[in-house]
Amino acid sequence: xxxHFGSLGIKQxxxxxxxxKETRGKSIGIILADGTTDYMPYDQxxxxxxxxxxxxxxxxxxxxxxxxxxxxxxxxxxxxxAQQLATSDNQIQRLLNPNILxxxxxxxxxxxxxxxxxxEIYLKSxx
Length: 127
Known about the structure:
- By secondary structure, the chain is an alpha+beta fold.
- The protein has five helices and three strands; from the N terminus they run E-E-E-H-H-H-H-H.
- The chain has helices at about 45-50, 50-75, 80-85, 90-95, 105-115; strands spanning about 15-20, 25-30, 35-40.
- The protein starts with 13 loop residues before the first strand and ends in a 13-residue tail after the last helix.
- GO terms for molecular function: DNA binding.
């Protein structure tokens, strides 16, 4: 992947770049030509170029967040979900953990259905 720093809104030359340890690697530190220091989220370049793997993970994280919100609002336990889906509590924990990248979309659809939620998927032309 190659992203020109100008597409990130950076107008000066970059002197130094590093992974920010204070944010546990979630941001990138940048020292600009005039000596000023700035930071950006580590995934901003991926969002700008709409990297397919990044976009898929981002969409899955949003789906999981919505499912968790409804579970909390309706006071439905993960144990109940596991029973209804004939699976283990651990499988539900993994399914609803946004840090675990490998997801079973069939299971997410089943959970959504149990919660009376529907998916709407559409494609549009990329700009």
